[in-house]
Amino acid sequence: MCSYYSFIGLLAQLVLYNCLFASDLSAQEVKSIDEVYVSVDFNNAKIDEAFHTIEAKTNYRFAYERKDLDSKVRLNLESRNSTLKDVLLEISKEASLKFRQINYDIDVQKIKRAENIEDKERIDVYQGGITVSGNVTSSEDNSGIPGVNVVLKGTTTGSVTDMDGNYVIEVPEENSVLVFSSIGFVTQEIEVNGRSTIDLTLNPDVTELSEIVVVGYGTQDKKEITSAVASVTPEEFNKGNITDVAQLLQGKVAGLSITRAGGDPNGGYNIRLRGLSTLGANTQPLVVIDGQAGADLNSVDPNDIESIDILKDGSAAAIYGTRGSAGVILVTTKAGSKRGTNIDYNGYLTIESAARTTPTMSAEEFRSVAPSNRDFGENTDWYDEISRTSVSHTHNLSISGGNESGTSFRASANYRDLQGLAINSDLHRLNARLNLQQRAFNDKLKIDLNIATTNENSDLGWNEAFKYAAIFNPTAPVKTDDPVYDLAGGGYFEENFVDYANPVAMLEQNDNTREIKRMNFMGALEYEFIPGLLGTIRYSQQSETTLRSIYMPKDAYYSTAIDDNPVSRTFSGFTTSGYSRKKNDESFNQLLEIFGSYDTDIADVLNFKLLGGYSWQEFEYFGFLAGGSGFLTDLSADDLNAAAAVRAGSADVDSYKNGSILIAFFGRLNLNYDNTFFLSASLRREGSTQFGEGNKWGNFPAVSLGIDLARLGNLNATTFNTLKLRASYGVTGALPPQSYLSLSTLAPGESSFYAGDLGYINAYEPQRNPNPDLKWETKTEIDIGLDISLFEGRLNGTIDYYNRNTEDLIYEATVPVPPNLNNTTWLNVGTMKSNGLEFTFNYDVFSALEFTSSNFSWNTGINFSTYNIEFEALNAEEGVTFDIPPANLGTPGQEQTQIARVIPGEDLGILWGLTFVEIDEDGKYVFEDLNDDGAIDTEDEGPVGNGLPSFEFGWTNSFTFGNFDLNFFIRGAIGHDLVNTYRAFYENATLATTYNVVKTKYYDPNLNDAQIFSDLHVEKASFVEMDNLTVGYNFQLPSSSSFRTLRLYLTAQNLFMITDYTGVDPEVRYADVQAPDDPDPKLAERGILTPGIDRRNTWVLPRSFTLGLNVGF
Amino acid sequence: MKIMKTQIKNSIYIKIFFIGLMVIVSTQSCTDLDEEQVLYDQVISDEFYQTEEEVLSAVGAAYTPMFGFFQNTNMYALNEVPSDEITVPTRGPDWNDGGHWVRLHRHSWNITDPRIQEAWEWIFGCISSCNRLIALLEPLGTDISEAFIQELRALRAINYYWLLDLYGNVPLVTDFEATEPPATRSRAEVYEFVEVELLETIPNLADTGPTDESTYGRVNRWTAYAALVKLYLNAEVYTGTQQWQKAADAAAEIINSGQYTLAPNWRDNFVKENKGASEFIWAVPYDEVFTPGSFHLPVMTLHQQHQNTYNMSVQPWNGFASVAEFYETFIDPVQNPGPQGDVVGLSPTGDLVTGTQDARLESFIVGPQFDSDGVTRLVDGAAEASDPDGPPLTITPYINELLPGGWRQAGARIGKWEFYNGMGQGLSNDFAVFRYSDILLMRAEALWRMDPGNAEALMLVNQIRERAGVDPFDALTEERFLAERGRELFSEVHRRVDQIRFGTFNDEWWEHPADASDHVNIFPVPQSQLLANPNLVQNPGYPDAGGD
Questions:
Q1: In 10 A of CB A460, how many CB atoms?
Q2: What is the enclosing helix (H) or strand (E) of B103?
Q3: A-contacting residues in B 280-299 (Cβ below 8 Å)
């Protein structure tokens, strides 16, 4: 198999090392350069011209790197039948070069210190020598690697492996040293030691893989990138029990925060790039899979991913215009190859258990504080009762291949069967993907067809089970036959208190399932009109159906509010005699893009790429729901017609459909001058139906510049490989999260109007205050960065500083009534500013280079990011400010207790409350009287913390030792606070009349007061966690083996965590999710302005161990 | 030469390619962003109002907000919780809600408090709906549209009446097209507007009775008169000028219309099937199916355990309750002379005592509570250790404290509207915004204010008392008037207005300390409105918007 790396490596090396020639193999007859006579007449000739002349007149070839030739030197030399050696000696003196003859190759090296060099040091001759040949294979799949440079150490003379990885090279001496190098692999040095055959295996190099970076509508060499772009390859992905593609990237990219508190297998991840910079539709980055913009990240399986590239700054994302404000995640899926067929199987088994639960009182402790009538005599650990050691397994099978007639394909099927930590919760997902490519017309035409399907079935369980496990009476039994406590007749112990239910019963009795079916299709035609000019037409669509089914049986006591219900009500199977609800949401989007690009060199040193195109995308969302109560038997749960409510006219029925169209024109120009100066400029003009007439179109320009100071300043090439300074400026936009905001429309309201003889009729009500002036939210970003590569690429790093300014924020503002009809209008109001610093460094502490015999290597990498978001006043004009509602603690009893606020002109993330002083001798709270008025009231509340971290970091370490490899990854977020809502509600023994009591180190037995929220419940939540530890073993297989590769590994996730936080998970909460039972990450966007609240719907934090097997055939 | 040729050829290709691209994309459909092509589940406003029924449906939008009248928010919360008849105690972990319920009862509210903000938005939302519909109907010029306009003007005037009563000085907007944030107008100006609008529209409004389907639930002539009675009766509070005669006259218009009679049984006004009750001048036609979850009373007031009494489909919230001193005005033979018998007393255990047997005691749910079988005692397993009655559920008029540890069983519950088996969050009973017995009491009061010895006044009050089965008064005093209104109109969203008019709103009662200043007699302009509309002026005694 021609692996991706070797293919890219071959391409790259053909470009980069085009001056490197394979040597001619007629060593026996080679003459020494002092035996060869040549006549030359150089008149103001450049050095390379002189070389060409000599090559034309002799059999010798020069091997050199262009950068070593001083382009200012002009040679004037006339010789008649001088020896070649004498000619070279002259050139050596003029051009500060030294030469070494190895058979017919003349290796050219720059002389570092020109003064006082002996002639014999200038010219060196080797003749004869030994022929060495062999085969270079990849340790990844044991296939031959084409394009590997095999170079005699200390020279540029060498050979290149052919398509099968075979090479032949002449070396001057028995003890010569060969250097095998290829982009994407760890370079190795081998001493010849008189051998004539040397086969060897190269290990992939995780630090050097991403030499080709995927950007919007094309790829770029990494060295040409002038904006903040990060690439992550599969080797760097997080290992272990992966439930969501986002998890692969967690902690891997500076500035990319990926969070999910607790261990809900169906819980979505929250993705934030450089914090929050928009209030519009996309607070999470735009996902583009193989060019399909807006695709669902989980429509691709981790095993099918070739690479993930993240466009971080405004200039990189601007090519995606309107949806680029939160960054762009580009996913490239694996393709087939041109040779042979490979079959790969990857599978793993995961065992997961709870690592942290909310600390509450044991039955014994509870007895000591509760009234005696609350003791039911049992000792029940409710966390134990609702959770389990879960066993999950995942399988991936892929077949890839191709043939010489231009067909290549890759087909894969991925199945994961995940058990949740909570009983009766699970996830089954089948992903299947076919990537098919056909080339035709002498490879000028390329046809791509990618089809992917997802079928996912989940038992979601009920998030509230974790809350009730914390607060349910620990002396109560799970089951009872006492009719006083078997309230619903289901045999479970229940009591009728506020916000209280038996967590085992709720999980065992009530069904809460979700089915997702997704189909992604992408078809593309690419035609190369002339070399460098490509035209592409690409069509893609994604359709997705989500069916949520809930059934609460007749004997189930648990009662909950179900989201998106037309009327907010709570449901209980018992009180409604069985409640069934089905909700089907569908989305369909199609994208047509036509674009062309032209890539050419103007003169030798100036490369120029031009891109232009058109994009049309339509989104449709539609669905319906039906729900009803009153079942004769639970067995009819799936037949809504059996619900009495349907007959009585009191069933819930709703449907909806809405959509939007997005059209764009885009263009981009890239210039590369001598690999030293780089320029990229782009413009996207984009229009959306979602804005008012006259404001539909927006322009999103970007420009970025880069200078490689290493080349410009001629810095020592062995120390400074790259020192690229970049600066970029880009404008991106954001769409509103809803359609029709500029239109005045009518629809029936929730309640009907009593119209006399007509009875109740629908009252058509205005749907909003229309805002015909609604326009694009725009974000302007400046990014200054430095890319460095030092010590022959052993140390690589990137440093970025950015400054973002978002204007015309799209926000549903509270407007004055009157003159408005409704109290909110979607407006362009206010600005938000953010800035931050990010850096990433990777260092090969030991590369295999130094430890050839033991094959030991150690690579370490760290990334670090900080950001700071300031929320300017929300105002459209002077003197007007729109109020942003605070976040409240919530039910029960704390509906208007403010715990987080947004204050104009201040940093985002302010947590809010009273300042705790002490608990006095009467057990009453004492708070600070901030305004000294002798009374403690809301006037004494103030900022008590911030929910956003000061900085986040990730630290990766990879070791290889022979066939073993070891990888550990440590991740942390420092400086954020969390409102511990468990403590805010339940850390108070006076509540033992009703609830079990939360007992952390802050618990005070003397407290005898109502629960009053204060900074006592706001905790420092900085954490450092051993996110991932993987030990792997690669079996060395004999060539006779029917396996190509065989690898076993063991991964531990969340081995330990260092934190002072007493809650379940100190993870940063980037958004506030209050809805108790919806795993939909979109819900999170409603709470984006009030981060830092650890709600009671968090699952326990899991720890998992995974045993995995990778096999290649 | 060869190179030159290739380059020329290349550049032609490039041109053809990009020109082709431009041609493709410059066709009309490729740049069409008209949003109506993707509008599916809503109707563009301009395309509605094609049929009479559509027009009626549109007018309905002015009335549907009324379903928000009786909830734990809006009008109900602002008029009842600050009064001496209803309170929402903080019961341990429940009902603290940032302290705003306690602040409401103690008259120490903040300008950010939610009830104050939502009532403003709710009433002005109704007004904007009226303005919008009037602007829509005006160009039609038909008899039907003219009739609707008159009705909507009266409805708008009633909403402005509520605004001037709650907030005093508010903006006065009648033009829907106006987009400038309007400026504050004085209470007197708003008063004048309301009076003029009602007087102008009254002759044009339907003179239908309570059972007439064509106007049931809507504003007719007598609704407008009822609003006028309330406006005039409180004119001294609003403008400083008494209007007793005008109040008495307006009430007489309703009484003399002959459309209304006192229901023989007081309870008839509050039962589940009370549609078209003979005292309903303006009813909100609640229905648990068509106006789901709107009439919140069962969940607002009942104890969690009451779910079993009524087989409710939802768990009640155990919140709103009456104040013991107010309850006492029903059973105290001195304040309320009448036949004596067993009533639930004021002890912490709610024991029976001897007291007045007023039929209107049905307004309260007190005493031992039972399962739906009527026999099995309800048991509250979470009863406080300090609760002298223990877990068996006895609702006591006695409330141990307002904050923080109100017992779960404490406080007489509001049982005035019939609770029925299988009810959910909202009742199907209709609610009378204006009720005939109130008109009688208001006329009586106006007459009595002008002449303390007025015989008709005494007769009217005793008419009400007799129906409740208690003894007639021999003479009227301020205390008796206010107490009688309390007994008759408990929980019907009149108490705050009455207390202000009778001058007791700022007095001390139970856990309400005497107010330092009477600026609390109107509510502040909510902070969010002040911030968003710089033309508003804050009411006296309240902080400006920046008072964070």
A1: 25
A2: helix B100-106
A3: 285, 287-294
The ipTM value here is 0.89
CA geometry: angle A722, A726, A732, nearest 5 deg = 140
A vs B: CB pairs below 8 A:
326
Q: Name the nearest CA neighbour of A295 among A545, A594, A519.
A: A519
3-state SS assignment for residue A404: coil
Name the amino acid, one letter, at B456: E
Is there a contact between A398 and A409 (Cβ–Cβ < 8 Å)?
no
Consecutive 10-residue runs of chain A (1113 residues): their mean pLDDT? 39 38 45 82 85 84 77 82 84 83 79 68 72 81 78 77 82 80 76 82 59 81 86 87 88 89 85 85 87 88 91 88 86 81 92 93 95 92 95 94 87 94 94 93 91 95 92 96 90 91 96 95 93 92 95 93 61 90 94 93 86 94 93 93 89 92 94 91 94 92 92 74 92 91 92 91 92 92 92 88 93 86 87 93 76 72 92 74 82 86 88 95 93 88 95 93 91 96 94 93 92 94 95 85 89 94 94 62 64 90 94 89
| Cα dihedral A917, A922, A924, A926 in deg (nearest 10) | -30
Cβ neighbours of B404 in A, within 8 Å = 1009-1010, 1012
Pick among B5, B6, B42 to test the A interface (most A CBs inside 10 A): B42
Shortest Cα distance from B288 to chain A (angstroms)?
A: 9
Q: Find residues 116-155 of chain B whose CB sits inside 8 Å of chain A.
A: 120-121, 124-125, 127-129, 132
Tokens 């000739």 sit at which residue?
Answer: A45
- Write the residue in A567, A596, A743 that is nearest to B292 by C-beta: A567
pTM of the model: 0.82
d(CA A692, CA A48): 63
* Shortest alpha-carbon distance between residue B505 and chain A (Å): 23
Closest-CA residue of A relative to B184 is A818
Residues contacting residue A572 through CB under 8 Å, at least 6 positions apart = A552, A556, A557, A558, A559, A560, A579, B313, B314, B315
Nearest to B313 by CA among A812, A644, A873: A644
Contacts with A816 from chain B: Cβ below 8 Å: 181, 529, 532-533, 536
Q: How far is A596 from chain B (nearest CA, A)?
A: 8
Q: In 3D, which of A1092, A1083, A807 has the Cα closest to residue A947?
A: A1092
What SS3 class is residue A712? helix
